[in-house]
Amino acid sequence: MAPKIFLTGATGYIGGSVFHTLYTAHPDWSYTVLLRTVPPTFSDLYPAANIIRGDYDSLDAPSTAAAISDADVVVHTGNSDHAPSLRALLRGLKKVVFFATTPLYDDGSTSKTTMNLETKYLIHLSGTGILSDYQSSSASSSSSAGTLNPRIYSDVSLADNTDVFLPPADDTDWKEPLHGETERIVYEAWRREEDAKEQEQETVRVRTAIMRPPDIYGRGLGVGRKTSAYMPWFVREILGVKGEAEVETLGSK
Q1: A single GO CC term, please (predicted)?
Q2: Cys-Cys with 4: which of 27, 30, 59, 129 at CB 3.0–4.6 Å?
Q3: What ranges in 26-129 are assigned the alpha helix state H?
Q4: pLDDT, tens digit, 9 for 90 and up, residues 4-33
């Protein structure tokens, strides 16, 4: 059976390119997209896509929640810092769906119902901004602007991936990093899944992944936004505002 994909942010710069690439490569898959506003050409380009009109605050609406629960994979490329929508997506994926089993009787009834406990997947778009040192910009700080932070992060190290958003024991001076709240939500969902597996609980399994892209540039492939936020801004600042490119202090990062 073809996988069922539920995707947010399908008209955004990144989400539009992700959706276009998926749809083009796998036109036989089932797609449901959440759109607040539907571009005029969207249905012409993606005729097989099911459109649900709504925003990130309406994911608990019955029809939307049902579509999330029915999905095999949720690709969340929308607002990466919108915590309520992320929680709603996880709730929807965890919902146990009951389906009828054979044999069917003449009156349309069945002998019993069965729980669908197949593994689901959530892919959440974050960003390398969570690793930035913008919170510590004092002149005395070892991670001040323009000074290289010597730490090397590994994407296969659990400690490297959680230290940045889990508060330390002494959190007096700790500040929430960019994307920290939502990444912590995904991490906590993963921890619950690990605990459920150890306890052999009969429940829907939700596997999670976080994407942390850096600054992205190039022409978007979707029907919505075609340009990135950062690169055009950098160019405007250099050419139109400052008239030159600058480096901060040592310029080593």
Answers
A1: cytoplasm
A2: 30
A3: 42-45, 62-70, 83-94
A4: 999 999 999 999 999 999 999 999 999 999
Q: What tokens does 119 get?
A: 């593994």
- Please name the residue ranges forming H helices in 154-229: 158-162, 180-198
Residue 114's pLDDT is 53
| Single pTM value for the model | 0.84
CB proximity list for 76: less than 8 A, separation 6 or greater: 7, 8, 9, 85, 86, 89, 122, 123, 124, 125
For the chain, strand residue ranges (E) read: 4-8, 30-35, 50-53, 73-76, 97-100, 113-116, 120-125, 206-211
The residue written with tokens 């609406």 in the block is 61
Beta bridge partners of 151: none
**If we measure between CA atoms, which residue out of 123, 141, 140 comes closest to residue 210?**
123
Residue with tokens 């709504």: 54
Compute CA distances 189 → 10, 89, 233, whole Å.
24, 11, 35
The whole-angstrom separation of Cα 97 and Cα 192 is 19
Contact 58, 38 (CB under 8 A): no
* Predicted confidence band of residue 140 (pLDDT cuts 50, 70, 90): very low
Q: Tell me which residue of 8, 123, 23 sits closest to 73, measured CA to CA.
A: 123
Could you confirm whether domain 4-227 is CATH 1.10.150? no
Which H helix or E strand runs over 25? helix 13-25
d(CA 26, CA 30): 9
d(Cα 112, Cα 58) in Å, to the nearest integer?
33
Q: Note the helical H segments in 27-100.
A: 42-45, 62-70, 83-94
